[in-house]
Amino acid sequence: MRLKDKVAIITGAGRGIGAETAKRFSEEGAKVIVASLFDHEVEETVNAIKAMGHDALGIAVDVTNADDVEGMIAKTIEAYGKVDILVNNAGITADNTLVRMTEDEFDRVINVNLKGVYNCGQAAAKVMVEQGNGVILNATSVVGLYGNYGQTNYAATKWGVIGMTKTWAKELGKKGIRVNAVAPGFILTPMTEKMPEKVLNMMKDKAPVKRLGLPEDIANAYLYLASDEASFVTGSVLEITGGLVM
Predict the structure, then answer these.
(1) Most buried residue, 13, 54, 162, 226, by most Cβ within 10 Å?
(2) Which residues are in the Ketoreductase domain (predicted)?
């Protein structure tokens, strides 16, 4: 198994890509911390993992709250004694055009998608530096690379995550810590399912592979980057788009 006895924290693991990643890591031998804002989502993913016969610990956490994040790290150390992998997957959208976007819409997305990644990355890195090893994986997006109509706030956060990823890779590499980012395209998740069907069909038609992505596609990318197979990979942004942009 590719993650045997590794301890992995996955934020935003209550549904979608995060939940699928938690299950995939469990299948590969990791002890998974299922972290999400909502208790019922945490419980659902934990129960699914345990039904598969694997170990999981659920923690409700607000990634925008540094004390909450420190508590998550402390509970992980108490339960398993280390933190091998952090997947910074938690994220939200609040779309609007530039001239219509409210301050609240801008601030909420910045707080979760950028500050939340910073909070979790900093807290995990402190533990990993002491250990002398670790992997941090950040969720960015092709929107962060190429922009998207109505997503000033979201694009700004995802571009910022790329900057943090490359900065952390430079700072932490000598400490035995690898840092990479995954940039999904259009993936069928509860977030994208809110979009009009005609938009989803248009994206499917534009992709050379003629389908939209599935959460499993992203989970497999995270698995590769978390494993020893990617031991020489750091500071990278892996685009998973089905060729939608290239």
Answers:
(1) 13
(2) 6-185
Q: State the catalytic residues.
A: 154
Residues 184, 128 contacting (CB under 8 angstroms): no
Is residue 132 part of an annotated ligand binding site? no
Rounded mean pLDDT of 142-147? 94
Contact indicator for 7, 29 with CB cutoff of 8 Å: no
Q: Is 89 annotated as a binding residue?
A: yes
Q: Angle, to 10 degrees, between the axis of helix 116-131 and the axis of helix 152-172?
A: 10
CATH number for 48: 3.40.50.720
For residue 116, is pLDDT > 90?
yes
Residue 95 CB neighbour total at 10 angstroms? 17
pLDDT per residue as tens digits for the range 180-212:
999 999 898 877 777 788 888 888 888 899 998
Asked whether residue 153 is assigned to any structural domain, the reply reads yes
- Could you tell me if residue 67 is inside a domain? yes
